[in-house]
């Protein structure tokens, strides 16, 4: 039986799982692109991103182009944590299919 306690609670929350999944697909995502893709409010998205940033899972880059732009990317720690999360989730799925 899989150990459900090994699921990272910080990643497992639906909003943060959505963010981590998108960040795993590219080098970086702008705040506006994440917002559009996830259909989250500014407040909800920034709250989840701050949580992930404080845990060291997500890096933040602020640039000024035509206007200020903030982008987000997985850190090495974040990429490793997400891969481990997926590994545990796969074990759970396999157990559920038996």
Q: Tell me the total number of β-strands.
A: 3
The major β-sheet equals: 3 strands, antiparallel
Number of structurally distinct domains: 1
Let me know the average pLDDT. 95
Specify the overall morphology. Answer: elongated
Give me the strand/helix succession: HHEHHEEH
Q: Taking strands numbered 1, 2, ... along the chain, how are they ordered across the largest sheet?
A: 1-3-2
**CATH architectural group:** Orthogonal Bundle
Explain what you see.
- With 98 residues, the chain is an alpha+beta fold.
- The chain has helices at residues 9-12, 14-23, 31-38, 42-54, 76-97, and strands at 29-30, 58-64, 68-74.
- The chain has a single domain, classed as Arc Repressor Mutant, subunit A, CATH 1.10.10.10.
- The chain has 5 helices and 3 strands; from the N terminus they run ααβααββα.
- It has a 3-stranded antiparallel β-sheet with strand order 1-3-2.
Précis, in short:
The protein is of the alpha+beta class and 98 residues long. It is 58% helix and 16% strand.
List keywords for this structure.
98 residues, 3-stranded antiparallel beta sheet, 3 strands, Arc Repressor Mutant, subunit A, alpha+beta, 5 helices, single chain
Helix-strand blueprint:
Blueprint (H helix, E strand, L loop, with lengths): L8 H4 L1 H10 L5 E2 H8 L3 H13 L3 E7 L3 E7 L1 H22 L1
Antiparallel strand pairs: 1-3, 2-3
